[in-house]
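Entry type: protein chain
Record version: 2
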Amino acid sequence: MNALMSIALGGAAYGFIEKSFGASIPTIPILGRAGTIAIGMHFLNKGRGSGLIRDIGIAAAVIAGYQLGSTGKISGEFDGDIASQVSGIAAQV
């Protein structure tokens, strides 16, 4: 029960991170925002066994897996559209 509560707290912290910083977090194209946060938390944790950072990473990975399974894509994922402001040579890069 303790591990379940820790991961639930990690999920709440993930929600806070996405709500507060979601638009400014760069995303890895295939992984989307949740997958990118999960990978970031893994490397930020440096392989330690426990802690809030690890719990945030687990929650983010679960959310990314859920989104992929239910909709076929992860939110924040690059969908192939280039912003309308980008044109010319910048659009070809």
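Comment: The helical segments are 2-21, 32-45, 52-71, 89-92.
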